Amino acid sequence: MHLKRLEVQGFKSFAEKIVLEFNSGITAVVGPNGSGKSNISDAIRWVLGEQSAKTLRGGKMEDVIFAGTEHRKPLGFAEVSLCFDNTDRTLPIDYSEVIVTRRVYRSGESEYKINKTNCRLKDITELFLDTGIGKDGYSIIGQGRVDEILSTKSEERRHIFEEASGIMKYKIKKQEAEKK
Ligand code: ATP
Ligand code: MG
User: Fold this and answer.
1) Residue 35: CB within 6 Å of ligand 1?
2) What family does the database annotate (predicted)?
3) Is any ligand 1 atom within 6 A of the Cβ of residue 63?
4) Contacts of residue 79, Cβ cutoff 8 Å, sequence gap at least 6
């Protein structure tokens, strides 16, 4: 499985809709300071369900919506879609292409979609559980996270290995069953 495409519209500095295509292998994003490189990884984190405005380097969730410039009016919503090649069925859903979408309005209301069908945030979280791709997965390692992983407590480190080895799904199901 790999990330094929990212579509961003009205998210942070991306007023106009942009489409980034990723091939297999390594993609490097380069550009001057403030040009929007980190906004791309913020967009990926956000569509995977990040709920913390702070992690997204803002004060409140509304800050992810394009705020306008001297020449352009602010926008009313932000939308990001990620398209995965799922021909190997890493994601437990019977489609070769999986598109995950999130949209947020200034009211704070969020909408989530899997392959263009409305769903809950929980469905997206479950889809990526144990794949390492979720918002807390090890596929996105922010600045400073490497140090954090090395210096963190052993139980917290175990958490990372549990997600990587694929047993997190069962732990969460067990916790949910115990709650009922
Ligand atoms: P660096 O090399 O310094 O890390 P970068 O390429 O990672 O820079 P980003 O942090 O991705 O840059 O982008 C910052 C830019 O995004 C700033 O110019 C900021 O004004 C703009 N920006 C952030 N949020 C919004 C928003 N809601 N609306 C419009 N522009 C925004
Ligand atoms: Mg940056």
Assistant:
1) yes
2) Belongs to the SMC family.
3) yes
4) 7, 8, 9, 10, 11, 101, 102, 103, 104
The phi and psi torsions of 5 (rounded to 5 degrees) equal: -155, 145
CA of 129 to the centre of ligand 1 (A): 29
52's tokens: 């913390």
ipTM attached to this prediction = 0.98
How many angstroms from the chain centroid is the CA of residue 114?
A: 13
CA of 97 to the centre of ligand 2 (A): 29
pLDDT tens per residue, range 77-134: 999 999 999 999 999 999 999 999 999 999 989 999 999 999 999 999 999 987 878 7
Mind listing the pLDDT tens digit for each residue in 27-71?
999 999 999 999 999 999 999 988 888 888 899 999 999 999 999
pLDDT category at 144 given cuts 50, 70, 90 is low
Backbone dihedral angles phi then psi of residue 158, each to the nearest 5 degrees: -60, -35
For residue 83, the CA-to-ligand 1 centroid distance in Å is 23
Binding site membership of 59 for ligand 1 (Cβ less than 6 Å): no
